What does this fold into?
Amino acid sequence: MPGGLDVAVASPLKADADPSATNPEQLLALAWATCLNGTAQVLVAEQRRTAVRVEVELHPAEPGPGYEFRVDAFLSAEGLSREDTETLLTAAHARCPVSKLIRRAATVDVHIEEYAAA
It folds into this structure.
């Protein structure tokens, strides 16, 4: 992206981190949620509403050293059966560029959930 983004970032490990700044977990969740949801929308030809929620947690790496992310994505689709939602999730996860980047990690998982209208 020409010019890039200017985002205030703070380490989640620092007690005195700026609370208004974002952290790597939030950025990863945002990137994957927008990518996976956009891909799902393309696959359902925008005929149904979809929603993606991503949870990212930082944990000590096992075995160490350092830390690792544990990441879960939850996809729901308005008016689709559980089976059709699972099919949509499988297809979206296979096509989404962020999914392609992280899907082989042992600490990444995808799930379906019931669609809740806003």
In short: The first helix runs from residue 24 to 43. Helices lie at 24-43, 82-95, 97-102. The chain has a mean pLDDT of 91. The chain has three helices and three strands.
